[in-house]
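stuck on whats below:

***
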Amino acid sequence: MPRVEVSRTVPASPEAVYAFLQRMEEFPRYMKSVDEVRVLERGEGFTVTRWATRLHGAPFRWTERDEFDDREWRVRYRLVEGDLKRFEGEWILEPSGGATAVTLTVDFEFGMPMIASLLNPVARLMIRENVMDMLAAVERALAEGGDAP
């Protein structure tokens, strides 16, 4: 299964980054490729969210379950339904000298073995670019005051 992993140091506390990540419905304000994030369910330590995004202009939609680990500052997500057979990963936050090292991982699978070898390399590049944009947007949002509760 293809995997994308990107890290970036964000000049904010892990608590601020983690609080922002729990408000995914705000992502479209800061992320140009995210059209909408709708919270379908919010419970103790989890959300179910519906995403509408674009990867190089192509629509990409899915519903995921997000699980929050308050002690570890991690957000794990996995596909409930959507355009791919498998789509999961996590946001990992680690203190880093007054800032936060943020790592976002994405594991995905198209579910079409015959064309996976053709699509996976291109998809990996597109998802990597999108993940890099998301991490930059988190930094931008926090710099603009997106850490307010």
